[in-house]
Amino acid sequence: MTSQLDIEYLLEVARDPEVYTRSKLANQLTEFVEDPATSDQDIDAISPVLLVLAEDESGIVRRTLLGGLRDLPRVPIDVIFSFAADEDDIASEILMHSPAIRDHELIAIVKICDELRRTSIAGRANLSPPVCRALIEHGPLGVVQALLGNERAKIDAAGYEAVMRRYGSTGEVESILIKRRDLPPLLAIGLVDTVSDRLQAFASNKKWLHPDKAAQVISDAKEDGVVKIISRADISENRNVVRGLMVQNKLTPSLVLRAACIGKMDFVEESFALLAKMPLPMVHNMMFSRGAMGLKAIYMKAGLPGAMFSAVRVAVDVYRELRDDMEISNEGRFGRRMIERILTQYEEFSDDDKRYLLSMLRRYASIETRPLVDRVLNDMAAAA
């Protein structure tokens, strides 16, 4: 069809004195570009005409053309660049929405444009990791905040590391980062540590709590935060997370117990395997196929404190029970079932043992479970 296009005539119309005539041409050409029957060669052929309209002195003409081309996947890049260099509202529209801009072109724009245009790019749907990294490396704080607030942006581990390197100590960034569900677990855990340490220092300076009490409260809150991150981690991430925690001396017995008390048994297995220096399949077999004796053997080999074993045993028993019902992911139900088991299914547990276990559950189980534990403990005290 290229041979049938009279480009010279179209250029004459594009320069017509009447705004209405030029706007009408803009509408007609956007319909032509949108038509699936239009070939790429034909779109290339009318590119000079589109460019004239994109640089028209009338904002009406330029915005008419923009409205027709904004969401189309086949728009000549020269026209895109012309819009990107236009008034801020026009530039924002094309940079935020146009599917015609490829990654390498977005990266080139990011490197040279101003903050407003970078912010517009940061709001695009399904931003790729390379474009995200470019925005993080070249954008000021406001741009990075906009990117982190875009849930559809695909930020990879390298991108998050760059965020931490440039803005890791910035409170505004921390508050957005912690909400990102795709934040790599170890980075998220490091962020929890940073925020918790800052809060502890603040509480101590204000003398709201005795330093020892503040340290205990913050430590519990920190582990709660870490467990929430662990609970979202994919099974494939567990080994790296556990290894990272071990290297940083953060794989504490209480953290393993917290994970057990919410049913995150894949994390517990990885922890036992690394602490006991045993293959994961063997650990799994001892935990789930050899009864309490097998579990205790692997538990002690991992070097964990004997005082916590009974609580882990209850958690593993409940996990076996709920695993077949596919209800493990419900942390509240998992905690309630642990309470039921402690109260009814362990004849060898004395009342003091049960109170001790419930007190541990009160501290280490999910937040949803703790009020129920309080009620049970109060009932036991009243009945005594």
In terms of topology, how is this protein built?
Elements: H1 7-14, H2 19-34, H3 40-45, H4 47-54, H5 59-69, H6 77-84, H7 88-97, H8 103-112, H9 115-122, H10 129-138, H11 141-148, H12 157-167, H13 171-177, H14 185-206, H15 211-232, H16 238-247, H17 253-261, H18 265-276, H19 280-288, H20 291-301, H21 309-323, H22 331-344, H23 351-364, H24 370-383
Helix pairs in contact: 1-4, 2-5, 4-6, 7-9, 8-10, 9-11, 10-12, 11-13, 14-15, 15-17, 16-18, 17-18, 18-19, 19-20, 21-22, 22-23, 23-24
Q: Would you kindly provide a brief summary of this structure?
A:
The chain is 71% helix and 0% strand. The protein is an all-alpha fold and 384 residues long.
